[in-house]
Amino acid sequence: MTDFAHDSVVPYKNADQSKKEQVATMFNDIAGKYDFLNRFLSAGTDLGWRKKALKQLESIDAKKLLDVATGTADVAIMAAKQLKLKKIIGIDISDGMLDVGRQKIVKANLQNTIELLNGDSEAINFPDNTFDAVTVAFGVRNFEDLEKGLSEIKRVLKPTGKLVVLEFSKPILPGVKTMYNLYMKIITPTVGKMISKNKVAYAYLDESIQKFPEGKNFITILNNIGYTNTYSKKLSLGICSIYCGTK
After folding, report:
1. What is the dihedral of CA 155, 235, 37, 124, to 10 degrees?
2. Residue 166: what pLDDT?
3. Where are the alpha helices (DSSP H) in 83-184?
4. In what helix (H) or strand (E) does residue 169 lie, and over which residues does it extend?
5. Number of domains making up the chain
6. Distance between CA atoms of 101 and 35, rounded to whole angstroms?
7. Measured CA angle at 17 (ends 13, 19), to 5 deg
8. 31 and 98 Cβ atoms separated by less than 8 Å
């Protein structure tokens, strides 16, 4: 497996833990404020991004979906409503995030459709060829081993099953890039620290985005793993991107 720069980016620089353990600790710590901060910091734009990502699955007859790094189950809940799926499994390594997600699922009366489990993207506890589709929203940056995680996802996809990844990217237009860097390096970590009381989570967010192999580089990774019909779409002037591939 190839080592990528973002694989070594961790929330807590001096902690004697793996990236996976640190990410779980970080999200457990901010779980209660995570949804509010997402809506606040993106001015609600993140909901539109998720809808556009799920729209990539409307052309396939998906019945069973796996949402990797499901967090508080935003995508899982949205998929249940938007795609009318019969079964959705969400996995995440943070029990704190899953607890919040389960409360949201009960509130939406979707307990019979969505099941949340503690699960590792690099060792998915399901047999080969189980799911019609897999989604990952803002989670691949947190994989400890990017290629291993993407390979595991491909393993559990059914033949012709589709992967949809939603992830932050970096805008390249000069004026937009300048404003984006100011927002991510100063405003986001400052507001994130004030509200979540976690001083590292939103600084980690920017560093992991900066080192993530986005755009054509990510499509190349998908191709090398064996995905076909790969493509990407930029959203909001390049602040976010959708990546898709078929098994």
Report:
1. 0
2. 97
3. 95-107, 146-156, 174-182
4. none
5. 1
6. 10
7. 75
8. no
Q: Which amino acid is at 139?
A: G
Q: Tens digit of pLDDT for each residue in 25-62? A: 888 888 888 787 778 777 778 899 999 999 999 999 89
Identify any residues that bridge with 68 across adjacent strands, giving them in sequence order: 91, 136
Q: Any idea what the CATH number is for the domain that residue 117 is in?
A: 3.40.50.150
DSSP assigned state of 237: G
- 101-158 per-position pLDDT tens digit: 999 999 999 999 999 999 999 999 999 999 999 999 999 999 999 999 999 999 999 9
Beta-strand relationship, 114-118 and 157-168: unpaired
Cα 245 from chain centre: 15
- Tell me which residue has tokens 């755009």: 215
List beta partners, residue 166.
137, 242
- Which H helix or E strand runs over 220? helix 216-225
Cα–Cα distance, 196 to 239 (Å, whole number): 23
Pairing of strands 131-137, 157-168: parallel
CB-based contact 230:222 (threshold 8 Å): yes
- Separation of alpha carbons 157 and 209, rounded Å: 27
**Residue 88, strand partner residues:** 65, 114
Give me 23's structure tokens. 């990410």
What percentage of residues in the chain have a pLDDT greater than 70?
A: 94
Give the structural domain span for 165.
5-246
pTM: 0.93
